[in-house]
Amino acid sequence: MSYRKAMNVATPHLGKARIGHSACPHDCPSTCALDVEIGADGRIGRVKGSADNSYTAGVVCAKVSRYAERLYHPARLMKPMIRKGEKGGGDWADISWEAALDAVAEAFVRAEQAHGSEAVWPYYYAGTMGLVQRDSIDRLRHAKRYSGFFGSICTNTAWTGFTMGAGTLRGPDPREMATSDCIVIWGTNPVSTQVNVMTHAVKARKERGAPIVVVDVYDNPTMKQADMALKLRPGTDAALACAAMHVAFRDGHADRAYMARYADDPAGLEAHLSTRDPVWAAEITGLTVEEIEAFAALVGRTKRTFFRLGYGFTRGRNGAVSMHAALSLPTVLGSWQYEGGGAFHSNSDIFRLRKSELIGVADPDIRMLDQSQIGRILTGDAVALRHRGPVTAMLIQNTNPANVAPEQRLVKRGFLRDDLFVAVHEQFMTDTARLADVVLPATMFVEHDDIYRGGGQSHILLGPKLVEPPPTVRTNLFVIEELAKRLGVADRPGFGLCEREHITRMLPHYDLDFDGLKEERWIDCQPDFETAHFLKGFNFPDGRFRFRPDWTGTPAPNRPPKSLGAFGPHEALPVFPDYVAVIEVADEAHPFRLATSPARTFLNSSFTEMKSSREREGRPEVMIHPQDAARHGIGEGDVVRLGNDRGDIRLHAKVTEAAKPGVLIAEGIWPNDAHLDGEGINVLTGADPVAPYGGAAFHDNRVWLQKA
């Protein structure tokens, strides 16, 4: 078999225990710098957060600390397999790597011959955040003119809302939280999902007496640590932000001199907010007037307030509006001027990595397909297919759409089509892999070289290969390279390079190559204070923050191409920050709102295979407020049924005041077969486009509830 040794270079140092340095590859903004124990036998042991990295600060989440359990899991995929019986039947035959890759390439050629190149849809996402292993699939896509991939599941709505106000996706150094006099953690549960946020927030509380405010839709582990906890109805964040700005103008906390210099229309905003008072917001959010007044007074009198805005904003149909409203609050207060003040969501725009050779060049005439609408695409929806031909062949890397994508019943129905060929390159037999025709075993992060960037912080980090992989598993890059050879495009730019060469070619701005970055371990890209705090102006031609956003004209990091246009009910988006009910509002037939929030020891569908994580999470449950449970005759542990127009599933009830009346919470994306009927929570979530630039509204669902 043709396999470049350069793609699998290792320095295991057998016979001597050591500490290896790496970066967490998982879909978490923290991108922790890691110290990995490696024994004399070449196997990893405990994984720790690097104390040398000023953001990671020696802390890592519990699930990653136990990574050896995942790496050496007995259920890990170890050899290529081809389906023998019916799709999803679980009957597999072992196959060589050579034969498996031949089968994938032949299926792609057949699909192209029958329906054109767009019949092939390479599909991937953030199962690894390593740029080489994650993004090389795009190089093959572009070289072969396969269908484009519009990634919409995770970031779009929040990123769009932030850039509508600031013009770019960056902000104050997140380490400045430790110097703050007040920290507002809004739309994120970092105790469960970004533990390093809490490292710096708790330091400010201990050393400065800074209160921690948490704004979320249920009493999650972060809210339990809050000094002020604001539990609002899903999708109503903008109403809280507007009321707080109303109070700032009313009570003299608004920094008029700052806005006169840095904002576009403060007078228009003040007039607009004149009717958006705490009484108005209380009716919408479910908070009390007293809670809203207390929050507004706290942030109004505390100039050094750090607003840490999370990815919860991206899970609702009005999430872009909510993010923009929350971002407007520190602008009204002038918080950006102070160390430890302002707002931060992501630093994704600060990393100057050159990826042109890694991903290749897209042809604008090739259709783009929306990742979130995979169910509609695979079941022949003409709009989702952009009124072109069917998708009949797929390669899937780093994601598990049969479990994590919305409209799960459509997704599964599409995968079961007899005329669809699917190859899945994976670490475990996921729900998606079970529906594949060919399954290929993949390496894990300590078994290959890669480079990472930490959107929730400011570092580019190297993840060099630390240990040898099992001899029968292969990297993502290997699969792409081998398919390129079989498909006749291996001579195109970017192919034929190993991981280390790709990494070196991404670093021209830093005067480093792979070996230099390995010695440095990471690069801190945080801009200077004035740039980070927008004291040189926001990223618009006039340097002014936009209280009046151009919802369909402003560039954004993941704006859809012109061929797709604006998404969803964008014409309903407001002129100024406001609450807009472009959400799934509860009605008589569906009286509950459902949020599918992250679990502490899972990460999307990763870590669900680990025994320790399963034991910690227990079983799939839905949180129900005691009032709602009593009204429906539901007791603790009872089996209940949730449903809407997309389908229905059964779960066990968890009766708790952590949920708000009228709101149901289902934590974690459990494997489908962990549920009572073999179907997961995403049966209930929708894939309708989110305004204005797309997204997936996983926390924005109306459902009915009954005792089963």
TrEMBL record:
<keyword id="KW-0479">Metal-binding</keyword>
<keyword id="KW-0411">Iron-sulfur</keyword>
<keyword id="KW-0560">Oxidoreductase</keyword>
<dbReference type="Pfam" id="PF04879">
    <property type="entry name" value="Molybdop_Fe4S4"/>
</dbReference>
<dbReference type="Pfam" id="PF01568">
    <property type="entry name" value="Molydop_binding"/>
</dbReference>
<dbReference type="InterPro" id="IPR037920">
    <property type="entry name" value="YoaE_C"/>
</dbReference>
<protein>
    <submittedName>
        <fullName>Molybdopterin-dependent oxidoreductase</fullName>
    </submittedName>
</protein>
<dbReference type="InterPro" id="IPR006655">
    <property type="entry name" value="Mopterin_OxRdtase_prok_CS"/>
</dbReference>
<feature type="domain" description="4Fe-4S Mo/W bis-MGD-type">
    <location>
        <begin position="17"/>
        <end position="75"/>
    </location>
</feature>
<dbReference type="InterPro" id="IPR006963">
    <property type="entry name" value="Mopterin_OxRdtase_4Fe-4S_dom"/>
</dbReference>
<dbReference type="InterPro" id="IPR050612">
    <property type="entry name" value="Prok_Mopterin_Oxidored"/>
</dbReference>
<dbReference type="Pfam" id="PF00384">
    <property type="entry name" value="Molybdopterin"/>
</dbReference>
<dbReference type="InterPro" id="IPR006657">
    <property type="entry name" value="MoPterin_dinucl-bd_dom"/>
</dbReference>
<comment type="similarity">
    <text>Belongs to the prokaryotic molybdopterin-containing oxidoreductase family.</text>
</comment>
<keyword id="KW-0408">Iron</keyword>
<dbReference type="InterPro" id="IPR006656">
    <property type="entry name" value="Mopterin_OxRdtase"/>
</dbReference>
<dbReference type="InterPro" id="IPR009010">
    <property type="entry name" value="Asp_de-COase-like_dom_sf"/>
</dbReference>
<keyword id="KW-0500">Molybdenum</keyword>
